[in-house]
Specification:
- The structure holds 2 protein chains of 2 kinds.
- Chain A is mainly alpha-helical.
- Chain A has one domain: MetI-like (MetI-like fold, Orthogonal Bundle).
- Chain A is built from 13 helices and 2 strands, in the order H-H-E-E-H-H-H-H-H-H-H-H-H-H-H.
- In chain A, a hairpin with a 7-residue loop joins strand 1 and strand 2.
- Chain A is globular and about 75 Å long.
- By secondary structure, chain B is mainly alpha-helical.
- Chain B is globular.
- In chain B, helix 7 packs across helix 14.
- The chains are: A mainly alpha, B mainly alpha.
- At the A-B interface, helix 1, helix 2, helix 4, helix 5 and helix 6 of A face helix 1, helix 4, helix 5, helix 6 and helix 7 of B.
Chain lengths: 309, 272
């Protein structure tokens, strides 16, 4: 791992401390982490290793494991349904990152200003990301109903014809993205708002004297300064969008047909519907590799953006 | 004139930002207080007239809602308490011992999809006969609570000045006493933030209970999905149940808004 910049400041290589004693005690601090290490070995590290082991076996629940080497992976890449689910995941992830980033940044600029009832309105705005995804997904399902749903009624008020939402293979993923945007734009807003809160005043004052307009100030002062925060939001959003499961599962279960079957749903069905443990574990391994690679890439991008900022 | 226009434009943008959240939650509320006839009317009826409590009574009478509520409290409560007991000292150990490798492990654990832990844990619980028990769910929920608590505590302990503990140790305190009596009280806000966020994420978790929960050990989110969706498709009780499931979390959000925002932006920052 080369991502030391991502760590909290104190995790960087130790610097000379003004007081000697703290260094003398350092070796004993691992004792504090020991209970957590044991639990993490059991519930997190063991599953990782065991998944790797299973991915090399043909294993169905009820039967025993049979070593097959890399055959599960070879089969996966010949499995049209798997390839299709990768495509769905890419489609879903790109839009479920880009849109919340745009809306969330805009929202942060709005909530950064002082206005009446700001605290209350911000709380309301943040609520979607806290709400239980399953509960919210059930309500969305009712709202998407083609005949009785409230969304089609609201659209009819502004003269737009009824949509099939999640019941049409062509609109199902955009509709699920709508739910995802609703759910997670607040998180982006909070992260960017944190960035805006720390902005210095001076550049704006001198820009005003120079006669810069609002757009110029945003483009040349605000954006470069909050860019590291936006990068963090992009990293988090990307990982969360890849992980998206609850709402998709509750609203469509991958349907209609397999039109909204993402990697995550595919994985769930292979493991707990078809009980193909080895095959599903191979999917987890691929998933894991994708997530690690993407995070490294994004961390790298963030580091670069930091140097430029 | 221009001032006024920009003020109206700003108010409009606030309205546009807030209305999707308001729409969904109000619609949930409206569905839960309407009778079945109004719920399936088109054009939709917006304001329940007269409002009925029948949906809520249905949730408690026709379903084991109280049992599932209790399960959720046990699972989330257990996972948060164990998570704090184990995670707070770990956060201290990592922050003071500067164990960067362990911190990276925690970070990867936070990024890994919950679903990927499920297959091995499912097999493990099958072998030990724990599938369908509350214990299995508490153990699995540690996957959620420990990383978030450790991660947030690292940040808080790093902001506690080392000098105070050094001073305590010069006076003869052991490392444990310096932690217990100096660092821990100072990091209390972090414990609150970590506890609240761990509670919310654990309470909201769905997939663990879908796979590992038995008919009598399900937590609320999967119970609402399983029993209510399939045994009755009427919208009123479903909306009432959905609202009840998410109500504790929404309450907590409103009550502890400041701490949650602080925790998420701190935790979020460190997430990168």
């Amino acid at each position: 791992m080369t991502s030391t910049t991502a760590l909290p400041a104190g995790l960087a290589p130790p610097q000379a401390k003004p007081f000697k004693h703290s260094a003398d005690f350092t070796p004993r601090y691992w004792l504090f982490s020991l209970p957590a290490v044991l639990v993490i070995l059991g519930v997190i590290v063991f599953p990782w290793i065991f998944t790797l082991y299973m991915s090399a076996h043909d294993w169905k629940i009820g039967g025993g494991p049979e070593f097959v080497g890399l055959q599960n992976f070879a089969e996966l890449f010949k499995d049209a349904r798997f390839i299709e689910s990768m495509g769905h995941t890419a489609y879903f992830t790109i839009l479920a990152v880009v849109l919340p980033i745009l809306f969330g940044t805009a929202a942060a600029l709005v909530f950064h200003r002082e206005f009446p009832f700001r605290g209350l309105l911000r709380t309301i705005f943040v609520m979607p990301m806290m709400a239980t995804p399953v509960a919210v997904a059930l309500v969305w399902t009712m709202m998407f109903h083609p005949q009785l749903g409230v969304l089609n009624y609201l659209l009819s008020l502004v003269g737009i014809g009824p949509q099939n939402w999640v019941y049409d293979p062509n609109t199902v993923i955009p509709t699920l993205i709508l739910v995802e945007v609703w759910h997670w734009t607040p998180l982006v807003m909070l992260i960017v708002l944190g960035g805006l809160a720390g902005l210095p005043r001076e550049p704006y004052e001198s820009a005003l004297i120079d006669g810069a307009n609002a757009w110029h100030m945003f483009r040349h002062i605000t954006l470069p300064l909050v860019w590291p925060f936006i990068m963090v939001a992009i990293v988090i959003r990307t990982i969360d969008a890849l992980k998206a499961f609850d709402t998709i599962f509750v609203i469509t279960q991958g349907g209609p047909g397999t039109a909204s079957e993402t990697l995550n749903i595919f994985l769930y069905l292979q493991a707990f519907q078809f009980y193909k443990i080895g095959y599903a574990s191979a999917v987890v391994v691929i998933f894991f590799v994708i997530i690690i690679m993407l995070s490294l890439l994004l961390l790298y991008a963030r580091q670069k953006s930091k140097w430029n900022a | 004139m221009k001032r006024l226009a920009s003020k109206i434009g700003f108010a409009l943008s606030v309205f546009v930002l807030v209305s999707p959240a308001v729409l969904v939650f109000l619609w949930m509320l409206s569905l839960s207080f309407k009778n079945e006839l109004d719920n399936t009317a088109f054009p939709p009826v917006f304001i329940p007239d007269p409002p009925t409590l029948k949906n809520y009574l249905d949730v408690f009478e026709k379903n084991n809602f109280a049992l599932y509520l209790w399960n959720s409290i046990l699972v989330t409560g257990g996972a948060v308490l164990i998570g704090l007991a184990v995670g707070v000292p770990a956060g201290y150990g990592i922050a003071r011992g500067k164990s960067a490798k362990f911190a990276v492990l925690i970070l990867i654990a936070r990024m890994t999809p919950a679903l990927s832990y499920l297959i091995p844990l499912f097999l493990l619980f099958q072998i030990t006969g724990l599938v369908g028990t509350i214990t299995a769910l508490v153990i699995t929920h540690l996957v959620i609570t420990i990383p978030i608590i450790v991660w947030i505590m690292i940040g808080y302990f790093e902001n506690v000045p080392m000098e105070l503990e050094d001073a305590a140790r010069i006076d003869g305190a052991t490392t444990w006493q310096a932690f217990r009596h100096v660092a821990l009280p100072l990091a209390r806000p972090g414990i609150v933030v970590g506890g609240i966020l761990a509670f919310i994420f654990s309470w909201n978790n769905f997939i663990f209970s879908v796979v590992l929960g038995g008919k009598n050990s399900r937590t609320l989110p999967s119970a609402v999905y399983n029993s209510l969706t399939f045994e009755q498709i009427s919208w009123g009780p479903l909306a009432a149940a959905a609202l009840l499931v998410t109500l504790p979390v929404l309450f907590l959000t409103v009550l502890a808004q400041r701490q949650i925002v602080a925790g998420l932006s701190a935790g979020g920052l460190k997430d990168g």
